[in-house]
Amino acid sequence: MTQYTLKCEEKIRLYSLLRLKLPSLLKTEISNSKLRRLIISGSIFVNGKQIRIPAFTVFKGSSVVAEIEEEKLFFEKQPDDIDFQLCEKDILFEDESIIVVNKPCHFPSEASMVLSRKNLHSAVVDYLFKRQKREKPLAKNPPYVGIMHRLDRDTSGAILFTKTRTVNKAFHDMFEQHLIHKEYVAVCCGIPKKENFIVEFTMGRISRKSEPAKWGFLEEENGGLASKTEFTVLNSKGNFCVVKCKLFTGRTHQIRVHLSSVALSILGDVLYGGLFNERIMLHSKKLSFIHPLTSEKIEIESPLPSEFEIYLLK
Fold first, then answer.
1. CA terminus-to-terminus distance, the chain
2. Are 244 and 234 contacting, i.e. CB atoms less than 8 angstroms apart?
3. pLDDT at 91 over 90
4. What sections of the chain are H helices per DSSP?
5. Buried-most residue among 28, 166, 228, 295 (CB within 10 A)?
6. Which residue has the higher pLDDT, 135 or 32?
7. What is the DSSP letter of 142?
């Protein structure tokens, strides 16, 4: 991935700025649809903040950075995603303001630069729209679905979306302040030294921009951010173990990096030293929080996929 910095010399829409500046930096023409997909996919940052709105207003002197994987942008290689359609059985919790669904493995959480690529966010919109059409056949506009957090393509389990913009700030703040408690289950390669342990250090991206994105220990003075995870061993069998992971912070690849740092790389996570497997054995097991509208304590659990069961047998 390469970073490109764009100079903003006047008040302008983000899309128009990219249209004006990016082709010369890339030394090639780029279609209008790809420019929009670049923004929607989360590749553009204005003054350090990720912006996904093509019509966003950029002011003179703003810092605009485009993070681009040129191979994906220009060749649009199709990943080996599953063909998934959301059904009622995949809904873990729903009320008037939120919907929590059980994400499958090998399926992206949100839209990417490949316009035709299916994703969970779109699947939720489609599911709610079809239900809406059954209740109101004349409905024309798809319902709103907001993205509050993400799971990696190969991570399965519970993921929350909002159904109305009025609760976005409340849930955004809850995720930012870690008031929504997240528990994962991972199958790891190795023999744990303790049944309960905590991994805590500053971390950040350690790979070069031209290399696959990889995170690890990084000093605070170099941009590292605090990270903390509590681990509990649920079962140990041969050279593998099953570990419950409780997050206290939400850094990119946090669980994967922390487990790798104690010689317990996740099975299938070859980027961080794990043995090859058909999937990365990491599952979002539980979300718990106080509902901002009802003040009710909500606990939502996602059943473990069948491929985890063999590692839980005594």
1. 44
2. yes
3. yes
4. 14-26, 32-40, 70-75, 120-135, 168-176, 254-261, 309-312
5. 228
6. 135
7. P
